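Structure ticket #2291
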Amino acid sequence: MFVRGAAVLGWAAALPSLAKPFVAAHRGNFTDDRHNFLLDGVPIKLKGGQMDPQRIPPPYWTQRLQMAKAMDLNTIFSYVFWNNIEPIEGSWDFEGRNAIARSILMNQLENEYGSFGKDKAHLQAMAEMLKANFNGFLYINDGDGKSYLDGGSLHGIMAETDGDSKTVFNARDQYVTDPTMLGPQIDGEYYVTWIDDCSSNSPCQYTSGRPDATKKALDDLDWILAGNNSFSIYMLHECTNWGHLLVMTTAPSGRERPRDRVIVYVNGEVGVIDKTPATPATVMDLKQGDVLQLLVENLGRIDYSQQLKGQQKGIVGNVTVGKDAVLDGWSAYSLPAALTDEKAKTPQIKDGRTPVLYKGTFGLPGGREQ
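Resolution: structure written out below.
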């Protein structure tokens, strides 16, 4: 994958035979005739699921694909995390979890861009970049509203939708009239779970263990296939750190809360302020002459909702003591996470007051290390 400037890139890959190891299946000539996807001229329904190899240790890739094949799926949809492939500008890593370029059939131009923007010049630039670097089929995916499809669609790129299939398929039929954007229908994200904050205040929502929800999902997928359409189950395999998908909002009191996790040091003593409490916690008392240090842990960015636009990270607003005493004159430093000396001895941390980065390995059956 050679895409720059994109955090993630959607792709679909043909599954290998269940009896074979994880090797590139024959991609063939993947096209469409407006009503069907065609692989080497033969109609094919994409029965897919979202599974991201970069979130799964490579020794498990074959087993995960075999599980998908056992579900009668024939396609994997995945994100590509470019920050892992190019961690430093101009420095590339296609090994291990990043060795993901297999039998790519389709490349997704943008995902739900119409929910937040309508810049056609941006979409055109993205399309040209992908066409210059990939041979795969291009499509774009949006929600079921007219404004979503108007904003996110682009002349010459197949428009697809995600969500409740009956709603989104009808929306595309109603709102997308440019013939160069039309083709076989895909529910690009058929939700069998919901991305949520796994905390005591907001339990995760799953189809598993709920017979009514399971029946609805099966009925929906049968309906999709009966209409000669395709789907991607979202998610087929998760391994997602949910905390990296959320962002803080202003507390009800009107005070700003941190957009990340802040480890607070007062004369070396440690406390934490993060997104979990409804209001910022009082970590510890301060007195004149104390040394206050704040270590901000980057928890990533939100990837959906209107808060995506203009979101701010880290410490937003003033740091105050008491009701209105503003602390200023800060010295800010970045702390690179890379371990420069692999052979350095583990330091002896006696009091637990100093920030420390640890790197370790653990054994897996068969002698592998991760």
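Closing remark: Residues 211-226 form the longest helix (16 residues).
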